[in-house]
Design brief:
This protein has helices spanning 39-52, 77-85, 115-127, 131-146, 154-166, 168-174, 180-195, 235-252, 272-275, 280-293, 312-315, 331-342, 352-358, 395-403, 420-456, 465-505, and strands at residues 6-11, 17-21, 29-32, 57-61, 98-102, 109-110, 223-227, 264-269, 298-304, 320-323, 363-367, 379-383. By secondary structure, it is α/β, with parallel strands linked by helices. It has 3 domains: 3-109 and 215-388, Rossmann fold, CATH 3.40.50; 115-201; 420-505, no CATH class.
């Protein structure tokens, strides 16, 4: 570790600098405070600071004012005063290299994943399914895996669920009970997801995690900014998407151990949306991801109004803290103030709880980990000003940044290759065609049999029309039905064996 890996994040009133050791950045962190107290500016300062060290960053832009990080800031008397106080001799106004992303593809490159990559646990949370419905969803994923069917988009999942309902008895003997009511409920939730804009999120080309880990020609890490101004209107999609992204990072990145710099720093803005009404299985998943992803070199920083928005199991793993002002107007506020105060390593020179309510805009209580991972005593400090612009880009400026993006053209056009939807429909058509072809020989044999019987029983041209017609229809129809049942039953058994054999014996594609 060198002094170059120490980030100046703030300074006390007497000018004492407060550092964040970049080697401890993967020990996670928290940025908390009431609306309007400076959380977004703190996030911006941290993001561009990591970028200058060569560390890529991912962050969501919920309000739309974080996009200014791509352009150089401008000097003002207030910023100049703070720069002088903090002794930031090398402070230069500059923008960070930025890649803009947008699930809807309007203000950045489209972000997609496949249904298979999302997985049944996160998808069940996204669809707000109950335990029984989630079980059916797990069966759908298992059957698709065993049969080598790709679940890429929502129409694939819809086709898979329909197939399960149509073959519920056969599937139930191997995988578990599937009811039409549960399938119908899931299908309705899929419709709600589509109407919320979720359909554009599932498909290909899926996001390549490597594109979040880029550096520019100067060695600076790219700041990946997800425009969430629209996505935030669907909070469950927003929270599930960010959790999926964290899960992908954890599963795909190799073990890294302690290193001078993190591999990626991830900011989870409006973190309370992840934990509000989350089922226990999801909370366990979040806790597991936060605990394990540190060894992959990824630091996760939760940004929220109150520190107790984050469960204790997760809060206890957040070593670097930036607490902006809270107002103790209500019992809820007072509880949050006490929670925030007790999570710091106390400073005998300061009443932490009282200080939280007295902080001005751009001030924070800061505690960071030293190079050994020991929390420092909390200090009241002015937060370092960002070098980039505070405030949003214009539409023209955003378009220019997107136009020179290193991933330009990689995600813009959606792909629709053969997957479960096409395979299931093709099998259904083949089964219909085979049944139709089998029916034609049966009908021909029925007609031939009728002619033979006519001659045996004297059914010539001179025979009474009524009696002859009734006798031939009765015996011929009986033979045709018998043949059809025999052929149909045989074909039916072959189809069932073929389909279930491939499902139960097929490998993962």
């Amino acid at each position: 570790m060198t002094d170059q890996n120490l980030l100046i994040v703030g300074a006390t009133a007497d000018g004492q600098q407060i550092m964040l050791d970049a080697s401890m950045a993967n020990r996670h962190g928290l940025v908390a405070g009431a609306t309007g107290t400076g959380k977004t500016v703190t996030l911006q300062m941290l993001a561009e600071s990591f970028s200058r060290l060569g560390v890529p960053v991912f962050t969501a832009d919920v309000k739309g004012d974080l996009s200014g990080i791509a352009e150089a800031g401008r000097e003002s008397p207030k910023i100049a005063e703070r720069v002088a106080l903090m002794k930031l001799d090398d402070h230069a106004y500059e923008g960070a290299p930025v890649i803009f992303w947008d699930v809807y593809g309007q203000k950045g490159h489209p972000v997609r994943t496949t249904v298979s990559e999302m997985g049944p646990v996160l998808l069940a949370n996204l669809l707000e399914l109950n335990e029984t419905q989630e079980g059916v969803l797990h069966i759908a994923f298992k059957v698709a895996d065993d049969d080598g069917l790709l679940l890429l988009d929502l129409k694939d999942l819809r086709a898979m669920l329909t197939w399960l309902a149509d073959n519920a008895k056969a599937v139930g003997r191997k995988y578990g009970n599937v009811t039409g009511q549960s399938v119908a409920s899931i299908q309705r939730r899929l419709l709600v997801l589509e109407q919320a804009g979720g359909e554009t999120f599932f498909g290909e080309p899926a996001l390549d995690i490597a594109d979040l880990l880029r550096t520019d020609r100067q060695g600076r890490g790219y700041v990946n900014v997800l425009d969430a101004t629209t996505l935030f209107q669907s909070p469950r999609i927003y929270a599930t998407f960010l959790l999926w992204l964290l899960s992908e990072l954890m599963e795909r990145l190799p073990e890294r151990g302690d290193a001078p710099l993190p591999k990626l720093v991830f900011f989870f803005d409006e973190a309370h949306l992840l934990f509000d009404s989350a089922p226990k299985a999801l909370l366990d998943r979040v806790t597991q991801v936060v605990r394990l992803i540190r060894s992959k070199g990824v630091g996760v920083y939760f940004v929220s109004q109150y520190p107790d928005d984050v469960p204790e199991e997760v809060l206890g793993q957040l070593g670097n803290r930036f607490q902006h002002a809270l107002r103790a107007y209500t019992p809820r506020d007072r509880k949050a103030v006490n929670t925030a105060a007790t999570t710091f390593r106390q400073n005998p020179k300061m009443d932490t709880a009282a200080a939280i309510t007295e902080l001005g805009v751009g001030e924070a209580l800061i505690s960071t980990l030293d190079h050994k991972g020991v929390p420092g005593m909390v200090e009241r400090a002015l937060v370092a000003p960002p070098r980039s612009r505070i405030g949003p880009l214009t539409d023209a400026e955003r378009t220019e940044v997107i136009g020179r993006s290193p991933v330009k053209g990689d995600y813009d056009a959606a792909l629709d290759r053969e997957s479960a939807y096409e395979v299931i429909n093709r099998r259904a058509e083949a089964a219909k065609q085979e049944a139709a072809e089998a029916k034609r020989p049966a009908e021909a044999e029925s007609d031939a049999g009728g002619s033979i019987l006519d001659s045996i029983f004297g059914g010539g041209a001179d025979a009474p029309t009524k009696g002859r017609g009734r006798q031939r229809e009765s015996i011929g129809e009986a033979m045709a039905k018998s043949v059809a049942r025999s052929v149909g039953s045989s074909i039916g058994r072959q189809i069932v064996r073929g389909v279930l054999g491939s499902i139960l014996g097929g490998g993962r594609r």
